[in-house]
Amino acid sequence: MFREKVRLLNPEWFRDPSSQLESTLRTPYILKFGISLFLRRLGFKWFASGLVIWIISNNIFISIILGFLTSLIFELFTLKKYYENKALPKHLKNFEQIKVLFEESKISSNSELIKIIDNSVRVSTWGLVNITYVGVSAWGWEIFFKILYPFVTSSKIHYSNLLIGFKNKATDSDQMLWDVAQKKDKENQKIKLEEYLSEFGSKVDDLEISKPTLREQPNLVKKLLELYSETESPAKLIKEQQNKRDMDIQSVSKNLKIPKRLFYLLLKKVQENVALREDRRYYQFIADYYIRVMLIDLGKRLSLKENEIFTKSWDNIKSKT
Amino acid sequence: MKYLQSHGIILKVKLKNTKMILKGTPASQGKVKGIGRVVISLDKIDKFKKGDILVTRATSPSWTPFIHASSGVITEFGSSLSHAAIISREYGKPAVVGVKDATELIKDGQTIEMDATNGVITI
């Protein structure tokens, strides 16, 4: 039910029913950190600004709506800094801790492994929730720009043309994979592929722990290499889009309804925030591969069939050890 | 091919020049005609070839190389700010998102025309 409701907000996730393990292991942490984040980042600001507006206007409806909008605007200006200075560094530090725990898990007892998995899921979910929330800023600025655009320029050029051609973790990943696919020497290609998978192998298709990460799907990796051996470089396409963007910006700047300086200031702010979108998606699931390998190892130790562990509840698994 | 019933007799009629129009949200501008490759999940992407039009429910970061290798993208879910839309724009591929039941209405291997600027797909 929780997933169905969230799917309304983000239809790209939760495309299939949730596994027992996802529902009982990660989802409770998502809820816990989600509520805590909401109160910490938005709730108190909403309440405080709403209260001030209520005192001034004496209208509860207006104070709720304006209070919410005020706190959202505040978030638009502060979230990027929160992401860069707090959420991401903490998430990456936690990720390093998970990698250490992952190595320790290989020689740990079953009960220790349970604790390691629980701890890894807890800290990685903190990052998942906090980094996901930064989307408010990334998408918020784009929506804000989209609404303002007709008042900013009379140009017929689509607003999104001014926001393309930026390198991000998704395009970096594609470029690295493309470079691997171009290697003629198979031994060298194998080494480079391992480097690629170490960095980008935790990519997932959904917020669902039962689904394999890219690194666990050798056939998919092989298909990607085949495909990329015959395509042009992603960096070349990005460069073309960047040139297109620069030309479109020049063209739009000739048809402005606001001062040029203000336009460039607004555009810079939007571009900076929009660039966070795809980077976030990379960092959100960075620990999934390690957590899945530990879970599969635990399943083997408990004599469960392949992938059977994902059909059990976390309490059920803990009771078996 | 259509099946029509007339006076208890079932007639198999081949209708020529009948086209189905699907509509969605324009996500990345452009026009393209090509082979629609319906892919529900990445473990079933074997048949996908460079230049195919990717037809799926929604995409995630694992799909970006396929968007890059495609000539266009159609998804059932998402908006102009969804992953498929953003990456398609980055790679300059036409994309239409939020096309209801696209993976059922478009048959794998079917030739389709996309007018992504107006969000129209002709089968």
Describe the structure.
The complex is a heterodimer of chains A (321) and B (123). Chain A is mostly helical. Chain A contains 13 helices and no strands. In chain A, helix 2 packs antiparallel against helix 3 (60-105), helix 6 (169-182) runs antiparallel to helix 7 (186-200) and helix 6 crosses helix 8 (218-228). The mean pLDDT of chain A is 92. Chain B has one domain (19-122): Glucose Oxidase, domain 1 (3-Layer(bba) Sandwich), CATH 3.50.30. The two termini of chain B are 14 Å apart. Chain B is globular and about 35 Å long. With 123 residues, chain B is of the alpha/beta class. Chain B has an eight-stranded mixed sheet, covered by helices on one side. In chain B, strands 1-2 form a two-stranded antiparallel sheet.
In short:
By secondary structure, chain A is mostly helical. Chain A has helices spanning 2-9, 20-57, 60-105, 110-133, 135-152, 169-182, 186-200, 218-228, 234-253, 260-274, 276-284, 288-301, 314-319. The longest helix of chain B is centred in the C-terminal third of the chain and has 9 residues, at 83-91.
Keywords, please?
heterodimer; A: 321 residues; mainly alpha; flat; B: 123 residues; alpha/beta; Glucose Oxidase, domain 1; 8-stranded mixed sheet; two-stranded antiparallel ribbon; 15% helix
Greatest interface and its participating residue counts = A-B, 43 and 34 residues
Indicate the overall shape of chain A.
flat
The dominant shape of chain B is: globular
Structural class of chain A: mainly alpha
**CATH architecture descriptor text of chain B:** 3-Layer(bba) Sandwich
At the fourth level of CATH, the homologous superfamily of chain B is: Phosphohistidine domain
Radius of gyration of chain A: 23 Å
Topology of this structure?
The complex is a heterodimer of chains A (321) and B (123).
Chain A: H1 2-9, H2 20-57, H3 60-105, H4 110-133, H5 135-152, H6 169-182, H7 186-200, H8 218-228, H9 234-253, H10 260-274, H11 276-284, H12 288-301, H13 314-319
Chain B: E1 2-6, E2 9-13, E3 21-23, E4 25-28, E5 31-38, E6 53-56, H1 64-69, E7 72-75, H2 83-91, E8 95-97, H3 102-105, E9 111-115, E10 120-122
